[in-house]
Each structure stands twice: as structure tokens, then as C-alpha cells.
UniProtKB/TrEMBL annotation, chain A:
The keyword Coiled coil does not apply. One of its GO terms (biological process) is transmembrane transport. It is found in: Cell membrane. It is a multi-pass membrane protein. This is ABC-type glycerol-3-phosphate transport system permease component. The chain crosses the membrane at residues 67-89, 101-122, 134-154, 231-254. Belongs to the binding-protein-dependent transport system permease family. GO terms for cellular component: plasma membrane. It comes from the Bacteria. The lineage of its organism: Bacteria, Bacillati, Actinomycetota, Actinomycetes, Streptosporangiales. Residues 63-255 form the ABC transmembrane type-1 domain. The keyword Heme does not apply.
From TrEMBL, chain B:
Keywords: Signal. PANTHER family: ARABINOSE-BINDING PROTEIN-RELATED (PTHR43649). The keyword Coiled coil does not apply. Residues 1-18 form the signal peptide. Gene3D superfamilies: Periplasmic binding protein-like II (3.40.190.10). It comes from the Bacteria. InterPro entries: Bact_solute-bd_prot1, SBP. SUPFAM superfamilies: Periplasmic binding protein-like II (SSF53850). It comes from Nonomuraea endophytica. This is Raffinose/stachyose/melibiose transport system substrate-binding protein.
From TrEMBL, chain C:
One of its GO terms (cellular component) is plasma membrane. Residues 1-21 are annotated as: Disordered. It is found in: Cell membrane. Keywords: Cell membrane, Membrane, Transmembrane, Transmembrane helix, Transport. The chain crosses the membrane at residues 34-58, 94-113, 125-144, 172-196, 283-304. It is a multi-pass membrane protein. Residues 88-304 form the ABC transmembrane type-1 domain. This is Raffinose/stachyose/melibiose transport system permease protein. Its main location: membrane. The keyword Flavoprotein does not apply. InterPro entries: ABC_transporter_permease, MetI-like, MetI-like_sf.
Amino acid sequence: MRLLAMPLAWSLALFDLFVVAWMALSSLKTTREVVQDPWGLPASPQWSNYGEAWTSAAFGDGVLNSLLLVVGSGLGTIVLAAPAAYVLARFRWRLSGPVTIFFALGLGIPAPAIMIPIYLGLDRLGLIDSLGGLLIVYIATNLPFAVFFLTAFFSSLPRELEEAAALDGSGPYRTYWRIMLPLTRSGLLALFILQAIGDWGETFFALSFLQEKKTISLTLLNFIQTMQYTGARWSVLFAGICIVVIPLLLLYLWMSSRLIEGIAAGYGK
Amino acid sequence: MRLRIAASLLALPLAATACGSGGSGEKAAELRVWSMWSEGEPNQKVLAEAFKDFEKATGVKVRVQWKGRTAMKSFLPSLNTANVPADLIEGNNRELTRQFAAAKGALDLSDVYAATVQGEQATVGQTVGDAYKRMATSSQGVLAQLPYQVSTYGWFYNGKDFPTTPKTWEEFVKVLDERKAQGRRPLGQDGSIPNYNMRYLEHFGRAIMGDEGWHALAPDKSGQGWLKPEVLKAAQMVEALAKGGYFPDGFNAAKFPAMQQKWANGESDFLYQGTYLPKEVAPYAKPGLEFRAFRFPSVEGKAPTMNVTTTGFGIPVKAANPDAAKKFLTFFLQKKYQDNVAGVALEMSVRKDVPAAPQVADLKAALDSGEINRSDVLDMSDFNTKVLLPLSDQLLFGKIGAADFTKQMAEQSAAYWKSKG
Amino acid sequence: MTAVLERPPVKAAPRSRRGGSPFEAARRRMIGPFLLPALLVYALVMIVPSVITVWISFNEWAGVGAMEWAGLANYREMVADPVFGTSFANTMKILVLVGAAVFVIAFTLTMLLQDMVGRKFVRAVIFFPSLVPGLVIAILWGFLLDPDGLANSVLKSLGIAEPPLWLAPENMFTTVMAGMTWLAAGTYTVIFMAAADRIPRYFYEAAELDGAGPLTRFWHITLPLMWDVIGVCAVLWAIGALKTFEFVLVFAGATGSLPPTGLWTFSVYAYAGAFPSDGVPRYGIASAAAVLTMLLTVVLTILVRRVMGRREQATY
């Protein structure tokens, strides 16, 4: 069986590498090459595709906003979710079960279903076309998963730690801040990365709530649609996609072992 | 910790309102536009020039958002609020009549149609023509759009391969048979898009029954209309196409735009597609391909009318500056800018006195004669998606025959309407 | 840890009587400030709009303008709509069949690759697909599975004269499911492998001394000790499957057009109501479909927990 599984694992991995390589290679071809010879190497690499994608998609407008959103929503979610998950996981009180379920319910809410009510609310607050408004939406929609994830994390910590801290005369806030939270570092990091991946590519809420401001995924979406209607210049399109995806891949590669560690710690004891 | 949370919660909305609200008082001095084009597109250049000239001519400051194709989609939710972000919103006729006007967001443009085009004798209504005006009117009777550009469908082919074009379906089939005899699969067709697959049936049907007859079928709650012999005739013509071996092998097992690519590479001869096709396939087309197009040939002596989509502007009821918006509409319809629609953007203008590029000249002539599909204002998209398109797919793929098709259409239509109560 | 949801709270400081010690009291006072901010943001941005959605589902509404009370008409229409039946069946197929395939693959790889050479590398790479936008995968699939595409050229060179038409209407949904399996298998394998790594080595060493083979070790050590992870993943999969949407849309539709109804899922059904390619939006029926998704989420979450819960005792 192991003889069977090895090739399966390797072919899965190689295929995934192939997908990424294909994406990168296609971004260096001419469009006719992409279409007529999708599996060949580019005759001469068309680096100009990148310049063209960068200027015609105007990614520059969106990069800073996307960075602010990703960092802001990552931190904001953790600031809100970690304390909540802590009391839900570690405290014995009547409502902790129902409240945990209440948060998990949010995982099942489809984004299009709540878009219009949120729009009306943001409009009342003057938060349409504002990064702050979008940030609140990102944080709130991240919360169910974050609480779900961190609750598992906190409950995996041995309870002797808290008892020992209490015996040393450490107050509950201090115990949380100085002992429990640092122990979840790998989980917080994993959560942050997972959220960054999600928010970096988010288009639906951004499209709905931003009007003049842009994010990088919005410029990409716009660029893709424009490309498809007026001259399907696939090579340039691939270059644009690479511009958005490659930072993400690099972030992942840089963090991957810590990410995986964190995920595992979060999902299991 | 607590303080931090509170502070960050408070700070966000404050910071946002500080930079978010741009003082609604001075809005009247400017014209805010949401365009469906993106920066750098030929159409965007045409509009940008017109906006610049308009600013110079009137002193109104124009602020444009080049939103791209999602303009209407992201505009619609704002109609629920008092803050409509634009005075002019651009979109196609269906978006403006079925979504924008259906939401009661559209200002009626009758007075714009009655005004004269800037610096010319004719009124806007005369310049646009009745056919497009009708398409710009919603089912509630609101004149919601001022169109400036049209697109339609045509049979595209390489001008170097065919010196003459068929006028009747019989002639066309003869050409197809000749090509087939030479070992070719002459008809390109992206079978993965149900809407494209339905076009044959729809054109045959409208030619045989007339637009009114065809458009009466879908809303018929009994479904019995589909059993008419004319429908059977149209379905049989599709069946003949399906079983005649004209489409490339696997045309229904490839992902759009695979078949369009093959056509552009010269692997098939004809492709029924929108007038945007040359622009779309140019980056990968076979070098030297000379795009030409002819309109759908006549069936039983009658050519089906043209299916048209128009592009243009609407004005929201809650626009802050509707007067400037209206003024711009009469301004942009001037010949000078409409020439750019044809010359720079390579699209067809609504104006009859603006000639189209040679590749679509035949189609423009048909459009100018006013032979335009009559009843497409009716919204049957849900019915089409759920009943007509799945069965028309099966018919074109040769899975069911014509008689079976009409029978199932009748049954499923009746069931569909029954489910609507 | 037992399953994550509604887990009996950890017995903190068991020796203290309920609320007796000042320590317990101080902890109790912490609940409010720690929980409320998150609860408030979540309730305002997600729960309140969801309640409004439930309200919309009893109305006819174009997304803007006035609503028209429709009672249960949207739900009745949905149930009578054969396309909804197809969407429901497809969603369930994805939930069960793709879910089974994903978990079997992830298990197999986890079980057999524990000591593989290069497993770190493989593990990092099989997570890639979740980082690549669906559109790229859709375009690649088009080239790969075309009747004359790379897949069939390979099959033909292996002597298969008539390779399958992957993207033909009758095979399309199976191909979509295969694609989803590929996408998800990597992610879940990564999670499972990482969880298996956290099982102390001495369990295995002891088992080996007892002469247990790899299958026995997996069955008696790995599986029970991973049960929590599996439970959490099952919940996540169920919820994700119910919301399957983007993959079908980019995979089977062209820009601005919906995929053929034979491929629809629940969420595509809701989306088609709210954002029809051509027609007036129908938020009423879209909301009704969304409400059903939410209800099913709750039911499935509880169901999965029940099924998984039976093994809880085996954890430690």
C-alpha cells in the first residue's frame, strides 16, 4: 500500500507545482502562445506583460488599501476573538455552550444574504466607501471562524497552568495576558495567515461597500472582466493574477511550517 | 486590554467618517459619473475626451469613476439610501430597464429625448430612433436609458475564404455541405454556454413565427404553445444541424472559449457571435484573419430580426445634479463623439449617419433599417435558465429529437408556471 | 479536547467551590468584558442582517424599492421548482461523495506517509491550490480536459483509443466533483498530517514492540488520537460543502452567465435569484434559499457532532 501511496502523494504534489508553474509560465508568453501551445515554454519571455498588467489594472491604487485591510482585520479579529474564545473555552458557566454554537452559526451565513442589510447599516453610519466600514465587516465575518478555531486552541492548554498562576497570586487578567495568550502564539499566527489569505482575495464585500476606493482584488476582478470583454489578452491576465497571487505564495512559503504547526495545534489537542 | 478594544472600536468609525463624507453641499456644482468602462479601454478614451470637452463648454466639473463591468451591480444597493453616488450611471439596456428602472431608481428621460442634440437640428429621440428608444423603456413605461452604442450578433467568417455571403438558410446549408465534403467541420460553437446553444432555435423560431409569435410561447402558462407546428419546424431545423455533423467533435465537451479559439485559428469556418468578437479574439487569432460578418440568413423567406444590446446612460431619481447629467447626454450624442465610438472604440454607434467598421458593415445596415427583435423587454430570464436552455442544449447536442423537444417544453413549461402559483 | 462546539467547559480550578473563592469571582467578572465586544460586533454585523434576511424571505423584493409581503410563497415555489431539487441533490452529493473521497485520500496519505522522504516538501506543496484563484484553475482545467487536451493526449498515448469527454454535459458534474476533491484533499491532508505529527512517538514504539502492523497502529493509535481533529474538519467540510459556489460558477460559467442548471448547488441557486444575468433580481427567493442554507448548517453541525461524539470516550 505504501508503494501505492507514495506515487499518489508525489503526483498530487507535482501536479500542484505544475499548476503554479503553468500560471507563471503563461504569464510570460504571448496570448497566441497561451492558446495554441498551452503546455510549451514561452519562445521568448514577455516580461512586458507584467508592466502592462501593472499599469492597465492600476494595481498601485489597491495595494496600500489591501495591506491596511489585511493587517487591520487580522489584528482586529484576534483582539476581539481571543478573549472571547478564552472565556468560552476555559470558564465554567451556563451559557458557554450555547454562545459557542451561536458563534459557529455564523460560519453558515452566506455573504450575499446579508449584503444589503449591512449596506443600509453602513450607509446610516456614513461608512460606505470607507476602509473603516469594510474593516468592520471583515472583522465581523472573520469572527465565527476565529472563535471556533481559538476555542479549540485554548481548551487544549493544560489547566494546571491557570491553577499555578492563581496560586502565585496572579489575577485572572494577568493570567490571560501573561500566561495563556503567549501560549497560543502559534495558533494566533496561523489564524492571522489564514485570514490574510482570505481577505487579500476578498471581492464580494469590497465590491459592494467601496465606491471610489479600491483593493487589489477589486482591481484584479475589474481587470479580468475588462480583459475578457475587450481583447482576451490572456498572457497579460495571467501576469496580473501572478502579481496578486505570488506575494501570497511567498508569504505562505515563508510561514508554511509555522502555519501548519498552528493549524494542527488549533484543530486538535 | 479592555481600553484598547474600546478605543479601536471607537476610533474606526470616527476616522472613517472624518475621511468618508465629502461634504454633500457642494455636489451640485459637479457631475458624478459611474462608467462601465475601465481605464485604458478604447471606449473609456472616447468618453474621457467628451467629458473634458463638456467641462470646457459648460464649466461643470465632471468626476468619473471608471468602474468597469460591475458598475451597475455595485450601484444598485445605493438606491435604498439617500446617498446615490452618481448622477449618471452607465450600463446596457437590460441593466437599466430591468434592474435600475425596475427598482424605481431611474429618472424618466422623456425630456432628454425631446431636446435637440447639442449644436444640431434633430432631437435626441430622432437621432436614437424608435427601436432603441423602445429598448430603453422599462416594462413600467419609464424611459430609463439613453443609448449611444449598439452590439448585435452576426455570422463571422474569414473574408479571404468566402467572396459572397448566403442570403437564405438553404444557401448557407449548401455552403456548409460543401465545406463538410472537403473534410471540414464548418460551424464553430461553444457548447458550454447554454445561451449560445439556444440562438439557432430562437432565430429559426422568430423567423418562422415572427417575434410576437415566438415571444408569446414562454409566458404561456398552459405550455401548449410549444406544440405548434411552427415550433416543431424550428426544432427540426436545429435537429438537422445537430445531426448533420457540422460542429467540431467534442464541441459540447470543451470549455468556453475553446471553440471560439479554434475558429479564430481557422479550424472552423463560421461562428455566430456578438459584434465584440473581433476585439475579443484578436490577440490570439490566426495572423491575417480578415473579420467579416453577415446577418442570420432568411428562413422560409423571412430573415429573423436582430438581437441587440445597447450601451448608454441612466440618471438616478435621487441624482444631485440631474440637469448637468441631461445636458451631457445631449452633448455626447453629437456626431463628433459618435464618430469616435466607431473610429476609436471600433463599436457601432446608434447614429445612422456614423458608418461602422467594414467588418460589421453588413450588420449595421440591417440595424439601421430598424429590423430589431421586438419583445425582448419582457423578462423571461428565469424561465429561460430553468426550462428552455436545458432542453435546447439537449436538442442541439442530439440527445433528444425535435418532437421530443416540443413535447417536453410543453410539459415543463406548464409545470414551471404551476410552481409560480 | 472533545469536539469544539458546545464542549463542556474545562473544569477550571476544580477544587474551588462554585463562585466561592475570590479567584473564581474575579474570573466570573471577566466574562463580560472579554466576551461582549466580540459578541456585539458579530451580532450587529452578522446576526441582525441574517434576521432581516429571514424577513426578506417572506417577501417579494427586487433588492431596492418597496417589499411586497408574500408569506410562504417563496418557499413553496422553491420546493416545487425541479431546479431546486437538482441543486439540493448536487449539494448533497458534494457533501457526501466529495467529502468521503477527500477524507479517504487525506487518511490514506496521512497513514502511509508518516515516514516518507520529502514529506515536509509534499506537505507544503499540496496546500498550494487553496492559494490559487479559482479562475486560474478554471482556465487550466479548460485546456487540460479539452477533448484534444493534455489529459486525453496522455491517455491516447497510453493506448486508450476513446478517452472520456470530461467536460461533456453528462460527465461535467463528476468532473466538477473531482476538481473539488483535488482542491480540498491537499488542505485536509495537511491538517491531518500535522495532527498525526503531534501524537507522541512512544505510542507507536510501544505498539511496534507489540508487533502491530501499520494498519493496526493507524486504527488503534492514530485514528483515536486524531478523532477531535477529524470532528472539527467534518464540521468545517459540511459547512463549506453547503456553501459550494465559486468553484462551480467559475468552472462552468463564462463571465456574466450562469452555469447549466444541471450543475447548480444551493448557493448557486440563491445567487441566481439575487444576481440574475439579465433579469430583475429576486431577493425574496434568494433569501429563502439562504435561510435554508443556514438552517441546514445548524442541523448538520449538530448531526456531525452527535455522530463524532460517540467516539469521544476513546480520546484518552
